[in-house]
Design brief:
The structure is a single chain. By secondary structure, the chain is α/β, with parallel strands linked by helices. The protein is about 45% helix and about 15% strand. The protein has a single domain, classed as 3-Layer(aba) Sandwich (Rossmann fold), CATH 3.40.50.620. It is built from eight helices and seven strands, in the order βαβααβααβαβαββα. The chain has a five-stranded parallel beta sheet with strand order 3-2-1-4-5, sandwiched between helices. Strands 6-7 form a two-stranded antiparallel sheet. The protein is globular and about 45 Å long. It binds zinc ion (ZN). The site of zinc ion has 9 residues, from α8.
Length: about 240
């Protein structure tokens, strides 16, 4: 029986969830990861998950023994119900509600329900996600208010004491790069730059300074601007 803190990281293979994975490993948790297959247009996201995990295990031996099982949760039924630009062939645009068409209604609510059910079975106490209200204020299920209410509902409904942990909630994208450097130095920054996948269009393309991607979709735009801001400020490290 172990007494280490245990975390389930919601891990998409993107920049934010990779930094979350590093946060949990660096603080000494035993960590499992889960990924959601909800009919993404891009298998590339699932491939990035494997690549990033392998790169972290190879580069950080002090973390490798605590990076444990990876779970893939099949949620295509949800994807079919909650169609959006990420799960169907729709253009990325603003909708009449003022939300981008990339918003999948209720996605994080559903993700955390599935994650909590898995964590319950696996005996994991912390659910770690890369939600961020600084950059994604258009996504109501990324806000801490929403996640506080959800944490309460999960704990009432499952008679557990889960913590929904969102270490990036108040950070800008530039600060997320800085945090990566603080956690794992240039090595982790390079893994994120080279191996993570953020682009909505599923484009790998050339390796830009800020990583792979189409360079023009909202996700690439955000990532690029965060990188540029971090570089312009002298690439500081933010210690966790
Ligand atoms: Zn893109």
């Amino acid at each position: 029986m172990h007494t280490d803190p245990t975390s389930l990281v919601l891990f998409s293979g993107g920049q934010d969830s990779t930094v979350c994975l590093a946060v949990a490993l660096a603080r000494g948790d035993r960590v499992e990861t889960c990924g959601f297959d909800y009919g993404q247009r891009h298998v590339i996201e699932m491939e990035a998950r494997r690549t990033v995990r392998a790169a972290i295990i190879a580069a950080f031996p002090q973390w490798a023994s605590r990076l444990c099982e990876d779970h893939r949760l099949e949620m295509r039924g949800f994807g079919a119900v909650a169609q959006s630009a990420l799960t169907a062939d729709r253009a990325i645009e603003m909708t009449s509600r003022g939300l981008p068409s990339t918003f999948v209604p209720g996605r994080n609510l559903v993700f955390f329900n599935f994650a909590a059910a898995l964590a319950d079975r696996r005996g994991l106490t912390h659910l770690v996600g890369g939600m961020c209200e600084t950059d994604y204020s258009g996504y109501p299920d990324c806000r801490r208010d929403t996640l506080d209410a959800l944490e309460k509902a999960l704990n009432l409904g499952m008679e557990r004491n889960f913590v929904i942990d969102t270490p990036l909630m108040k950070l800008t994208k530039a600060q997320t790069w800085a945090l990566a450097k603080g956690l794992g130095g240039e090595t982790l920054v390079e893994i994120i730059r080279r191996d993570t996948h953020t682009c909505y269009l599923g484009t790998r393309g050339e390796l830009h300074a800020w990583g792979h991607g189409c360079g023009t979709c909202p996700a690439c735009d955000l990532r690029r601007r965060g990188w540029d801001e971090w570089v312009a400020s002298g690439q500081p490290a933010l210690n966790p």
